[in-house]
Design goal:
With 210 residues, this protein is mostly helical. The chain has a domain of 138 residues: Fido-like domain (Fic-like fold, Orthogonal Bundle). It is 51% helix and 2% strand. It contains 8 helices and 2 strands. The chain has a two-stranded antiparallel ribbon. Strand 1 and strand 2 form a beta hairpin. Helix 2 crosses helix 5 and helix 3 packs antiparallel against helix 4. The protein is globular and about 55 Å long. It starts with 21 loop residues before the first helix and ends in a 7-residue tail after the last helix. The mean pLDDT is 95. The structure holds adenosine-5'-triphosphate (ATP) and magnesium ion (MG). Adenosine-5'-triphosphate (ATP) binds next to helix 1, helix 5, helix 6 and helix 7. Adenosine-5'-triphosphate binds next to helix 1, helix 5, helix 6 and helix 7.
């Protein structure tokens, strides 16, 4: 099926800037969204950390770039990953995205964060982040949105994850999310969870450090 999010005969996402080159779009998008991320870091979007809150965050980050900012994707996606030799993670089916997203968020909020050690909290936060990321609720911008969302949530439970650590290591973080979720119908469980847990653990601003 043709991807309706793309310009005709092109691999570039239709965008409000009218950019038809992938490189130009990536460059403009990266700069633009980093500004928005800075704004969110100092002025968070209030909410209850359920799905409308996540959608509001995506809308804020991408509203000047894409018409569909803040909306769940309507198609299935495949993203080729270098660390999987070009294969893609098995993201949620478009039909299941809304339900899977909400289930992840409900489970994240049910966790007994206040009783956990820092190591346990790092493992559980990695699990929540990675599971939400594997849904890939949006056509584009999932990594930035779910990381920002989980970092903001982490402030409410006293973990205070360092957003700059994720931003400054964005390639490593993406690869760690891929490694965490490398479970396939045909090839089996190839997952490695320790890379993501390590960076989340490093990102926790422990009380004695602040
Ligand atoms: N946490 C982050 N903070 C700031 N910039 C990020 C962050 N994560 C990724 N980036 C940058 O965003 C750009 C796009 O990265 P990437 O495609 O991996 O993420 P995404 O578009 O948010 O997610 P996806 O493509 O999986 O929907 C890259 O320039 C990357 O360096
Ligand atoms: Mg992307």
């Amino acid at each position: 099926m043709r991807d309706p999010y793309l310009y005709e005969n092109s691999d570039v996402l239709r965008n409000k800037l009218g950019l038809k080159s992938q490189k130009d779009l990536e460059d403009a998008e990266a700069d633009y969204v980093v500004c928005k991320l800075r704004q969110l870091a100092t002025d968070p979007i209030p909410g209850d950390y359920f799905h409308t809150h996540l959608l509001a965050m995506h809308r804020f980050l991408f509203e000047d770039l894409f018409d569909w900012a803040g909306e769940y994707r309507r198609i299935n996606i495949f993203k080729s990953e270098r660390v999987l030799a070009g294969l893609s993670i098995d993201y949620s089916d478009a039909f299941d995205v809304a339900r899977d997203t909400e289930n992840c968020l409900v489970d994240m909020q049910k966790k007994q964060w206040s009783t956990m050690s820092y190591q346990e909290a790092a493992e559980e936060m990695s699990e929540s982040l990675a599971r939400l990321w594997k849904v890939h609720p949006f056509r584009e911008g999932n990594t930035r949105t779910v990381i920002t969302f989980c970092c903001q949530y982490s402030d409410t439970i006293g973990l205070n994850l360092d957003r700059m650590l994720f931003e400054n290591n964005s390639k490593y973080v993406r690869d760690a999310l891929v490694a965490y979720n490398a479970v396939f119908h045909d090839a089996g469980d190839l997952s490695q969870k320790e890379h993501l847990v390590r960076i989340v653990n490093d990102g926790i601003r422990r009380k004695e450090q602040t």
